[in-house]
């Protein structure tokens, strides 16, 4: 009976086109072959949110601290009509318990990319509605965050994603038009980000310019996820291999489509546009979001 009720609720969510989050494990030998691992039902939905009336959850990012796995994600507050950042936690990577909203501003927030560096925790949520890229630092992880620095400003930046490579921090960031990609670099995470000499990397590229989750380092290679928005925003997700990354040169190659129609279920049938990979001892934990059909 409980499973039947849950299936009915999931169908209702799908009809409303609500985004939700699925979390699953995958072997290190099948890192990007996710088709058979995606769960039949979402792990985190709007129904889990207890401190606001949520219309959907999306943009999950995973991190592990002191044996606990945390998933940070966007919550769309239906009453305030904006995104806020929430967190759920898990002891086993299977069952996630919602905790609370941990970051809210006067403007919309989403895409809470999160990083642990020398015992400190940083978050770069999307704040394009405020025309900037903002770096937050945890006062009391995972619940209390303060603004550390504004890294970029002057544009409606979208989905800023950073990675540390060859002693520099590189930031990949788009605009809300979905078709542009720029790269910036800095010596420190909170330093001054200089524009890459090849900027803009992409213009008029709706297939994979906009980032869609964590940048992955695997077997001495770097991989990036790009959103396919050429038909509609966030419909699919591509995997790209970064072949050259220096302050003066950038080159990447599109490898494969990560999300095809055949692998989709009720909760993610319409769109999938994000993946976060967390490396654990014997496997990877993956969080993806999806939107169902109306």
Characterization of the model:
The chain is mainly beta and 294 residues long. The protein is 5% helix and 51% strand. The protein is built from 1 helix and 19 strands. It has one helix spanning 2-15; strands at 19-27, 54-65, 68-77, 82-90, 97-103, 110-117, 120-127, 132-140, 144-153, 157-165, 168-175, 182-186, 194-195, 216-218, 221-228, 236-245, 250-257, 275-279, 283-291. Strands 2-3-4-5 form a 4-stranded antiparallel sheet, with no helix packed on it. It has a 4-stranded antiparallel sheet with strand order 6-7-8-9, with no helix packed on it. Strand 2 and strand 3 form a beta hairpin. It is globular, with a radius of gyration of 18 Å.
Features:
4-stranded antiparallel sheet, Tachylectin-2, Chain A, 5% helix, mainly beta, 294 residues, globular
Summed over residues and divided by their number, the pLDDT gives a mean of: 93
Number of domain units: 1
Write down the CATH topology.
Answer: Tachylectin-2, Chain A
What's the story with the biggest beta sheet?
Answer: 4 strands, antiparallel
What is the radius of gyration?
18 Å
* Number of continuous helical runs: 1
**So what's the CATH class?**
Mainly Beta
Q: Can you give the helix content as a percent range?
A: under 10%
